[in-house]
Specification:
20 strands; 8-stranded mixed β-sheet; FAD/NAD(P)-binding domain; 13 helices; alpha+beta; 391 residues; D-Amino Acid Oxidase, Chain A, domain 2; 6-stranded mixed β-sheet
Length: 391
């Protein structure tokens, strides 16, 4: 069944919003995307597309475009922070040979999705700042310029500070996790291999991986501290603050930190998964529904999954829009909550202090020697999940 009967407005031209727009337009709906920025672009950040997200891109015939614009991950390497000595190497080629993990610049993925959406006929409206959303008696999006729009269905893919979420849920109480993170991208003259390097230190860790043709390296540096920092990925900070915070990191980590010229700092806050993903003819997806900490690299991947399941459920249920939205939440809520919880539990493993860090690292080494396949496959429930295969 096609969705020709639906006129859909999507708030947000991020990964989830553009993916949903593309799928829904291809299924026959008339889709308009509202984006507050003056151009569809995201700069200064890398992300990991894991096999569960790649399943959606493959189903949309975009996997080749993604592969050409990114680095295929070959391994995850855990290192001690002082000299960068290897603690454990998890070989993805050997123990997950049938899966594909990619390191991609966020801007490149956004451009791939935006081009495909526009080619499909999606109408993207820029400089559209949303003030509020109403779901009753019909969906209405109120814009800062005084204009209004809506349609048969409004989808809030507007991220962490979603206006759509505020319309459907009581104000939550996110709490500061006691961790902050810096992001930066630097040149890669040494041509670091297509591996995620995780430097583990007391109360902090640094993750690095190459982007594009390998000429760039993405850095994400996380530190535990009491001082609060504002929440948001694009808040600039002085690179010297980042270097001072990680002054005890040696080896290649030190060399990469020395190259940082621009960086962003943000506070990591724990949010509850939204209780209501839909009301009336308004629905949520991605971070608007389930903000997640970055420790499982699943923010973008969950948004890809949401977009596919929402579109498939709308198509399956035909004219029954309320039933479709209820079924969409039922199909997605438990998985999203489980992944969010896994991400929240994951950071401490890289932050152990003496005297616990040395024996913990020895256990990791032993595990890598005795049961490497088991260590690689411990999160198969996340990575092997394929929403495109369901039904």
């Amino acid at each position: 069944m096609t969705l020709k009967h639906l006129d859909i407005t999507i708030i947000g031209a991020g990964i989830g919003g553009l993916t949903a727009a593309l799928i829904l337009q291809r299924k026959g709906a008339q889709v308009t995307v509202l984006e507050q920025a003056e151009a569809i672009s995201e700069v200064g950040a890398g992300l990991q597309i894991t096999p569960n997200g790649m399943a959606v891109l493959k189903a949309l015939d975009l996997s080749d475009a993604l592969a050409w614009a990114s680095q295929r991950a070959r391994a995850v390497v855990l290192r001690s922070h002082r000299q960068g000595r290897q603690v454990l190497r998890l070989d993805l080629d050997q123990y997950a040979a049938d899966l594909r993990y990619y390191f991609v610049h966020r801007a490149d993925l956004i451009h791939i999705l935006a081009d495909a959406a526009r080619d499909a006929g999606v109408h993207v409206r820029l400089l559209q700042k949303v003030q509020r959303v109403e779901y009753d008696p019909k969906p209405v999006v109120h814009l800062a310029n005084g204009a209004q729009c809506g349609g048969d269905l409004v989808i809030g893919a507007d991220g962490l500070h979603s206006r759509a979420r505020k319309a459907l849920n009581e104000a939550g109480q996110p709490f500061f996790t006691g961790q902050v993170a810096w992001r930066a991208i630097v040149p890669n003259p040494a041509k670091a291999p297509a591996e995620a390097q995780v430097y583990m230190g007391p109360g902090q860790h640094l993750v690095t991986y190459p982007l594009r043709d390998g000429s760039l390296v993405n850095l994400v540096a996380v530190q535990e501290r009491r001082a609060w920092a504002e929440e948001g990925w694009h808040i600039p900070d002085d690179p010297e603050n980042m270097r001072r915070a990680f002054a005890g990191f040696g080896g290649e980590a030190h060399a990469l930190l020395a190259q940082v010229q621009d960086c962003a700092l943000w506070g990591l806050f724990r949010h509850q998964v939204a209780a209501h993903w839909h009301r009336g003819a308004v629905a949520l997806l991605g971070d608007a529904a389930h903000p997640t900490l970055p420790f499982m690299a699943q923010g973008g991947n969950l948004a890809l999954e949401d977009a596919w399941v929402l579109a498939a459920t709308l198509e399956e249920m035909g004219q029954d829009l309320p039933g479709a939205l209820a079924l969409y939440q039922e199909r997605r809520h438990a998985r999203a909550a489980k992944v969010v919880e896994a991400a929240s539990r994951n950071a401490w493993k890289y932050h152990l202090r003496s005297p616990l860090s040395w024996p913990a690292h020895q256990i990791l080494k032993l595990g890598g020697q005795v049961a490497p396949q088991r260590m690689v496959q411990q999160f198969d429930w996340i990575y092997r999940h394929d929403v495109t295969a369901a039904g």
